[in-house]
Each structure stands twice: as structure tokens, then as C-alpha cells.
Amino acid sequence: MKKLLTITFILLLFSYSGEVFAQDSDNTTADARVLADITVTANRGLNFGDLTATAQTPSISPGDGTDDAQFEVEADESSSVTLEFTQLPEGASGGDGSTFTYYIENGAGDDMEMTFAATDAAWTNNDTFTGETSFDPTSATPTATIDGDGTIYVWLGGDLAVTSGQASGDYTGTITLEATYN
Predict the structure, then answer these.
(1) For the purposes of burial, counting CB atoms within 10 Å of the CB of 1, is it exposed (0-12), middle (13-18) or buried (19 or more)?
(2) Which of left, alpha, beta for 104 (phi over 0: left; psi -120 to 50: alpha)?
(3) pLDDT digits over 95-104, tens only?
């Protein structure tokens, strides 16, 4: 019996070696970058000027510097934003795939047709319209990279169809540019 107890004791002793754990650890970080609010400022509107009531189609090119619409977009430097004209003068009536028709109104129910072609909008990292990237204001949503000073500029041109006998008045329509972080 003594032998059996000794063997049992030895087996128990060898079978219990205490708790041994292999252990390791590492750390990581939690990071976040809070981006500055995006500011979109309309510096000037699309201005076709004073027109006579004769059939004509005045055209304004983006970057003409005086009559084209210009927006300034401020955001976190070195970020990228998506640009989209979310509102052009209302009354879209479709188009031929490259030009879409919109209308501006005089408040008395009279309107004039506006068209925007595939290259009637552009953006640049400077306010001098050099190195511009053209885009279609009716359908494109380009991604623009904000340069080191945190500012890009967006230009818009278009065509206006004045008919013979066009009713007089001040014609207006709303143009909205939206910029969102990617």
C-alpha cells in the first residue's frame, strides 16, 4: 500500500506542474482626423447682361473672367472633394446626350432656355483659370484635390436662347454647387 501511495504521489507531483502561461501583448492607437468644414462661396453669378428681344444665342465660356459664374471652395488642405451642381435653373427637359436644357424665368411666367455643354464647367487650384479640369455640369461629379492653401475655384459657363419678341424683364434661375469630402 505504501508503494501504491508513493507511486500515486509521484504521478500527482509530475502531473501538476503549476499553471504556466505563454503571454505577450502589444499596443495600437486610435486615430481620427477632424476635417475643417467645407465652405462654398459664389463669387459671381452667370451674367448674360442686357439683351434685346431679337433672336440670339449669347454664350459664356467658363474662365472668361467677367461673366462666367465663379465659386470658391475652401476645405482641408490636401483633401479631396466631390463637386456637383445640385441645382441648375429649373425646368430640365432632357437633351441629346451632350447638352441639356434648363430655363430661367422673369417672374411673370416667361422663360428663356439655357443649355450647358459637356465642357461648360471647370475647376482649378488657382483663381487665374490655368491648369483647369473641365467637366459636364449636368451630370459629372468630379473629384478635386484641395491644394496647400485649402482653396479651389469652380467656373460655370453656358448658352442662353433669346427668341424674337422675348418678353422684357429680369430673368433669373438658381445655380447651386455642392462640395463634399470623399
Answers:
(1) exposed
(2) beta
(3) 444 455 688 9
Q: Which residue has better confidence, 87 or 105?
A: 105
Residue 89, pLDDT score: 65
Nine-digit cell at 60?
459664356
Residue with cell 430655363: 103
E-strand stretches of the chain? 39-44, 59-60, 69-74, 80-87, 99-105, 111-117, 121-124, 133-135, 143-145, 151-156, 158-161, 176-181
pLDDT in tens, 71-87: 999 999 989 999 999 87
Backbone phi and psi for residue 178, each to the nearest 5 degrees, phi listed first: -115, 135
On the 0-12 / 13-18 / 19+ scale of CB atoms within 10 A, 84 is middle
Burial degree of 120 (CB within 10 A; 0-12, 13-18, 19+): buried
pTM: 0.78
| Inter-residue contact 81 to 144 (CB < 8 Å) | yes
Cell numbers for 83: 463637386
